Structure formats: structure tokens, C-alpha cells
Amino acid sequence: MPAKPAPIKKSPAKRAAEKAPEPATEPEPAPAQAPPAETPAEPAPVEAAPPETAAPHVEGEAAPAPSAEDTPAAEGSAPAAPAEAVIVEEPPKAPTPTPPAVPTSAPLDLSVDDVNDSSLTIKWKTPETIGDSGLDGYTVEYCKDGTTDWVVGNEELTPANRYCIKNLTAGDLLHVRVVAVNPGGRSEPGTLAEPVPIREIADRPKIRMPRILRSRYTRQVGEQINLVIPFLGKPKPVVSWLKDGQPLDNKRVNVRNSDKDSIMFIRTAQREDSGVYEMTIKVDSFEDKATLTLQIVELPGPPASVKLVDTWGFNAALEWTPPKDNGNTDITGYTVQKADRKTEEWFTVLEHYHRLTATVSDLIMGNAYSFRVFAENQVGISEASTVTREVATIQKTGIVYKPPEYLEHNFSEAPKFTTPLNDRAATVGYTTKLLCSVRGCPKPKIEWLKNQMVIGDDPKFRQISNQGICSLEIRKPCSFDGGVYTCRAKNAQGEATVSCKLEVKQVILPEADKEKGK
Prior knowledge:
Elements: H1 12-17, E1 108-115, E2 120-125, E3 137-144, E4 151-152, E5 162-165, E6 173-182, E7 185-186, E8 190-191, E9 196-197, E10 203-207, E11 217-220, E12 225-234, E13 238-243, E14 246-247, E15 254-257, E16 261-266, E17 275-283, E18 286-297, E19 303-312, E20 315-323, E21 331-340, E22 346-353, E23 357-360, E24 368-377, E25 386-387, E26 392-393, E27 413-419, E28 424-427, E29 432-441, E30 445-450, E31 453-454, E32 461-466, E33 469-474, E34 483-491, E35 494-505, H2 511-517
Parallel strand pairs: 11-18, 28-35
Antiparallel strand pairs: 1-2, 2-5, 3-4, 3-6, 6-7, 6-8, 6-9, 10-12, 12-16, 13-14, 13-17, 15-16, 17-18, 19-20, 20-23, 21-22, 21-24, 24-25, 24-26, 27-29, 29-33, 30-31, 30-34, 32-33, 34-35
């Protein structure tokens, strides 16, 4: 049988142009290389492909046959089998170009770490932005004041954030800058704010803040403030003060500086004097800073509002809000008072109370109450208070009061002498009195007897009985008035008696007096 014609080999440019799929068309027959013995078969359409790959099979086209170079056709041999279809690979894409390196940002916070008459040591912080290319190191440069000739202080890049420039001349005034270097080049320079004199510092500046000022310093409104802050430094340091980052108000705060200390004086402290004060002392390029926090406090204002939440039984529930003005310090507690609407006298029920709600108990039934609340801080209790608008009325309940029943006591008592009569001796012509006391219920009737005979209404005798005290007055007794006198008390419960002996003596005059009397 006649062999099939070999496929046509195409150029690489043409193969690339035929990569895109095209609509199927009627293929053209390829010319035969040798005349067949019999009627030649219809040539098969082929699509050229590189030796490594084969074109994809398209419907309506014959499968491509192997190349004549790879498989030569043998005359008189059987026709070759069609080859398998192979997917064509796309050519690789070009790699994305690497972005160019970018320099870092400038080094931060340059400051002098040490200086003497021949060297200068500075330090700084790492740049804020470094980038993906990293950081190779730093270059330290300096120039004399008044010139623009910058000299590189380090021959090789230094990776540290501190560098000492040596072999300097005493008395020079140097400007210093630091540049960060990376593959992207040099960064913007970080420069010292002021030039540095090259000289030996006898005594570096140092603030010796008193212990009492290291924490918050608190004073009341109207007090005088006089703070003395010592420091060290040679030659004499330059002292400056700031309040909350701003210069001091000379109308409010006075500062006096000496070689060894700085004095801050406020004649009458006010709330606006509170804040953070920063003291800075500086000797050439060296400086030391210290801060003190001053807090001026006063009495707080009253609570913003007080509300009567509920009333039940003998209790009332209150609720209030903190004061709008706390006196520039924390609120430490509250004082709660109550007042009866009848008397309007205030009584304290809670002191140093820390919550914002409270229950007042033991109220009196039938009374109406008002309540007020004071705020308290470390200075004291607020001058004003906030009073509840509502009135707590303690309602009467259906309780009927029954007074206790007491048995009547029988106070009836027979007469009884509590003080007896005492024997007496009287002088003729001198009035005398007999006394005793008696008790009994009902009031007993009093009678006096002489030698068992009732005296009666004899004008010589005067009988008195008052509040249980019984007396018998004998006017100018004679010798015949002596004898036994008895006091008798009688009532419905009985009687009682008490007796005494009265002796009336005659005055005996001497013989000489008798003769004179004659």
C-alpha cells in the first residue's frame, strides 16, 4: 500500500500565530512526495507543532502524523498509526521587577551623652521608618559653628545608637548630625538643636527633688505655696520652668533662682494653679529635668440632685447623683440628714456614706419628712446641700392603742409617828416648843395632852400641824407647866401616840444679886 505523505514543518513564528483556536475549515491536500502505485489516497490535513509538543486535535481534521524526519516511510510497508493529541503549554511570564530601595527616615532625639575637652559622645533613637531594605548603619558628621564643612566622624558605619567623636579641639563650638544609611541611600539628617562647646564640665546638672514633692503635692485654695528645690551644677546652670508644657504666668507664679536652688512662690493658691510643673536646669548641652504635680483643692459643691424613690412602712429610700464640682479632688463620702416637717430641725442619719443610694429607717408614723444630702472630700463637707422636692409621709396604720390597765392601790394607812418627842428642860419665863412628825392616810387628826388631859384651846399653848409636822408651843412657862406631854394622831385606820417629859426650872439668883434687887 502507498505510504501517507509526511506532515509539513512550520516555522516557530507561524506556530505562535496559530496558538489561538480558529473555526474549523476544510483542509487543503498536501503534495505527495512520490507517485503511488495505485490511486493515491486523499492527503490528511495536519497542523504543525514543535518536536516537543503536538497541536490539539480539532474536530473535522485528521490526527497529525509523525514527522518524516522522526519516522521515515518505508516503501511497501503498512501505513503508520496516528499519534496521541498533546496539550500545548503556554510560554512562561516575565518576572515582576523588584521595587527600588527607599531611604529610612531621619534618626530621632539626638542628645549629648558626654563631653570633655577632647571628645564628644552623642546618642539617638532608631528612625521611625526603616522599610523592607533594612538599615546598614549610621554616619556621624560634625562641623564648626560658622562653617558648612561637614566632617565624617566615623570611617565605617556604626550599627549602635551611640558614638564618641574623638580628637577634638577644646573651645570649639560644634554642630552635630546623624544620617541613617541603607541600600536606598542616605536618610534626612537628625541634628542637635544647639551647637556643643568642647570643654570639660566640672559638675553636671542634677536636680535634687525633695521627697515630699515627688508625689502629688496638695494644698487648699487660699493657702500660700513656697517650694524650694535644690540642684547641683557647675558652672551655674540655666533654670527654666514650664506649666503643662507652657511658660509660667508671672502674675500668678514667682520664681527666684540662685546658684544652688530654685524657689517657686504662689502668694494665694487658686484652682487654676493646679497642673504639672516641669523644672529644667542646663549646663551647656547637659540638662536635667524634674516634674512636680500641684493640686489645689477646696470644698465640693452639693450633690447635683436628690430624689425620694420610695416610701414604705417606717422607711424611705433615697437616691442622688455626685456633685458637678468635686473641689478638684475625689469625693470621699456623703452626709444624709432628715427633718420633721413639724419641727423643721435637721438630724444626721448617715455620715461618711460612700454609696449613691440609701434607706432611712425608724421614721415615726404619721409624720412627714424632708431629706438633704451633703458631699464630702478630703477638705471637708460641702457648705450647701441638696434637698428632696418630695416629702416622705409615714402613713398611719389601723392600730388601736389600748392603754394598760392598772389596779388602784389602797393608800390607806394608820397614823405612825416618824419622829418621836424628846424630853426637854425649859426655864421659867422662856417660851419653849415640842416637835414631832407623823404620817397616815387619810390625814390624821392631831391632839395634844398634858398629864393625860386634853389641852384644848388653852391660850397658853399654840398647836400647829402642817405637812405631817406637829408642834406645841408653850408660852412663858412657869414651874406648874412641867409634866408629861403627849401627841395623839387618829384617823379611820387607827391612832398612835408619842410622849415626852418637860421639866421647867427656876432660876436661882446669888445673894449679892438679891441685895441689889432690894
